[in-house]
Specification:
- The protein is α+β, with helices and mostly antiparallel strands.
- Helices cover 35% and strands 24% of the residues.
- The longest helix has 22 residues.
Length: 495
């Protein structure tokens, strides 16, 4: 999962891109990068680490120009620790392009082979984003062959990308001396939205993964970019768009609403905060059917993303709500930390329990999801150590039983605690006295209640149904092998 931003401005954009990346930091903590354009030259800086640690004054001074891109990244399965895989990426042919991407191509290996054999382009990393950039560059060269680059050739190139690429991709690219383009895969799996800011020098445009990046920097939210749609902002600030996919089926990633997106974002017409309140309402109904409410003294969230669901659950059931865990905000999110050993170590650094809220009570802990179970197990232990009598657990998401292949780093079933286990067995594994999961139908309905047009979702990690139609057992086995090899390398490095 990554956060991306692009600004076509009238004033220097380096500081605004930096500020917007801070607002998207929750989407990736592995690396950050910015690329700007000025006088036909691109300036770029990227490195491992948080935004605040990557960029220094000297780096910011070198990022000159009134337009540019930025990305925060965490690596997916099979990617390396090399800074070469951090974004933005750059190619100098045919026109000079900088490029940021959020998502994951499911056919990137086949495309990389095609690029070498047919398109005569060399890929220097194992990043699917570099593959996608070169596919776009090649198709741009084909579309503009014999003519100067124009709006039609750009849209034609993006249409060709849609025909070749499969998987999830939200993209922003800067084409030297021409302008900025943004496009989204035909399923709209990963989010992308447009904002504007009127200045004395003219209108500035921003494209970003989440609306919070726009509004937090003073831009007004205009709209979401549609699945399969391409947007072009030329050097004069003129905006044009075109549907470039032959067919579309809007199936946004449901996990964005459960976990990844910030609660103050608006995504595809849905308030993330409101969606999580709805999740708590639906989960409350299942809790009432599964547990004796008289046995629950207090409801507590696992901060931060589960807080709206926990509050609504408690209110709906008439139960007391308390904050029992305090979060250390200077420790990274454990879900997106690359190594299991690091993940285990960080849980107790990240959370501390308030003993008086637990002592002698039967508590219901509410979390957004249970993925590997590592965090849940340690949190249950912390609650007991703080004096809880009984510890029940509720998940605002259904059991995660299948790998995600569209950019979320949980690629193998062996890592998922719910795979091959019943609810009772998962409860035993995490040490809880009882466990309640959200029903998938209720999760999807909690979002659909806020936007009835969202008829389908990308929910593969819950139901094993992959919307792109190209995922089979052989693909998942290859992912598992890749993940295993990466884990071995990581363990060796940790030693």
């Amino acid at each position: 999962m990554c956060g991306i931003v692009g600004i076509a401005g009238r004033n220097p954009v380096n500081q605004v891109i930096y500020d917007s990346l801070l607002l998207l930091q929750h989407r990736g903590q592995d690396a950050a990068g910015i690329a700007t354009e000025h006088d036909l030259l691109f300036s770029m800086y990227k490195a491992h680490g948080l935004v605040r640690d990557v960029f220094r004054t000297r780096n910011m001074r070198s990022l000159v120009g009134n337009s540019g891109l930025g990305q925060v990244r965490y690596p997916t399965a099979g990617s390396s620790d090399s800074v070469d895989e951090a974004q933005p990426f750059y190619v100098n042919a045919p026109f000079g392009i900088t490029f940021v991407h959020n998502g994951n191509l499911t056919n990137w290996r086949e495309l990389r082979e095609e690029l070498f054999r047919i398109d005569r382009r060399h890929i220097n990393t194992n990043s699917d984003s570099e593959v996608l950039l070169n596919i776009f560059a090649h198709e741009l060269q084909q579309a503009a062959s014999g003519v100067s680059l124009d709006e039609n050739s750009i849209f034609q190139a993006i249409a060709a990308v849609h025909k070749r690429a499969r998987g999830a991709y939200a993209v922003i690219a800067q084409i030297s001396s021409f302008g900025m383009v943004a496009f989204r895969d035909p399923h709209g799996i990963r989010p992308l939205c447009l904002g504007k800011l009127d200045t004395p020098q003219g209108t500035e445009w921003m494209v970003a993964s989440e609306s919070v990046a726009l509004t937090g920097c003073g831009y007004s939210f205009v709209r979401d970019i549609e699945p399969g749609e391409a947007l072009l902002i030329d050097l004069d600030g003129n905006v044009s768009s075109r549907q470039c996919a032959q067919s579309t089926l809007f199936t946004p990633c449901v996990f964005e609403y459960v976990y990844f997106a910030r609660p103050d974002s608006l995504m595809d017409g849905v308030s993330i905060y409101s969606a999580r309140l709805n999740m708590g309402e639906y989960l409350a109904n299942n809790v009432a059917k599964s547990l004796r409410l008289g046995d629950i003294d207090v409801v507590m969230p696992i901060p931060d993303s589960s807080r709206p669901s926990a509050m609504q659950l408690a209110a709906h059931l008439g139960l007391n709500y308390r904050e029992g865990f305090i979060k250390n905000r200077y420790v990274g999110r454990t879900f997106i930390m690359p190594g299991q050993a690091v993940r285990k170590k960080s849980v107790r650094q990240k959370l501390s329990a308030i003993d008086m809220e637990f002592r002698g009570k039967n508590v219901l802990l509410v979390d957004d999801s249970i993925v590997r179970g590592t965090t849940s197990r340690q949190i249950v232990d912390m609650a007991r150590e703080a004096g809880a009598n009984k510890v029940y657990f509720a998940s605002a998401a259904p059991p995660v039983r299948f790998p995600n292949v569209y950019g979320i780093d949980m690629p193998t079933q062996s890592e998922l605690i719910a795979t091959g286990r019943s609810t009772e067995q998962v409860a035993q594994e995490i040490g809880a006295d009882g466990l309640v999961y959200q029903r998938l139908a209720d999760l999807e309905q909690s979002i659909r209640d806020l936007n009835p047009a969202m008829t389908q979702f990308e929910s593969s990690c819950f139901n094993g149904e992959y919307v792109t139609g190209d995922i089979d057992a052989a693909y998942l086995a290859r992912l598992s092998q890749t993940r295993g090899a990466a884990a071995t390398v990581a363990a060796t490095n940790e030693d």
